[in-house]
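Onboarding guide, step 5: your first structure request.
Type a short instruction followed by the sequence, for example:

Predict the 3D structure of this protein.
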Amino acid sequence: MSTPPLPHVTEDWDRALAVVAHPDDMEFGFAAAVARWTCQGKQITYCMVTSGEAGIDGIEPGEAGPLREAEQVEACRIVGVADVVFLREGDGVLEYGLHLRRRIAHQIRRHRPQIVITNNFRESWMGGGLNQADHIATGQATLDAVRDAGNRWVFPDQVSEGGLQPWDGVRQVWLPGSPQENHGVDVSGTMDDGDASLRAHRAYLEGLGGDFDFPAMIQQNARATGERMGVAFGAGLEVLEP
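The system replies with structure tokens like these:
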């Protein structure tokens, strides 16, 4: 059964905010898209809900967290992202709810993006396999926080005491890696940047163990997505309208 072609996402925007659960979440398939957009002069901010401190079995969380933050900053530098925020919520134990919505709404009001990128919150990944609880919680909370941020009566202390204003200017929410992907990004010219950004997570990749080549997997997926777009390499995503 053939898969339908993927249209290219809109690029008539200037500011985006990526809210994801862990360092490396953007690099597993979407960093090349970010590199494309920063080359166009777009401003993209990363917000890491956790520091990924529970992600390396052989390194204690107190050591792993700062290490993974440093790797994320370097990964961002490679693709032209200078603004990285770490909320330092607990890795592996995120829960969807008001606390998480509040923290993410604060970031949306602060950065005032037109596009919000977040974790795929579906039950599975595009390539198969069950999704991870932190991804699901972050994606769902971010989707709701987009609406929260536009309503001055939701988390009103951020407006009355925090000096922020409501922001209802988010046009779309994007979910990279969704099994319901309906758009793509041509990353033919920035695959090398995306690959280098992923490899900046050296300690994390080494900590995964085994001989599996994750950069090769991402390139293979990008080639398959590119075929659906009529380009060499593509990054797929699900587009949601708030």
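Each response can be followed by summary notes, for example: Strands lie at 15-20, 43-50, 83-89, 115-118, 172-176, 183-186, 234-240.
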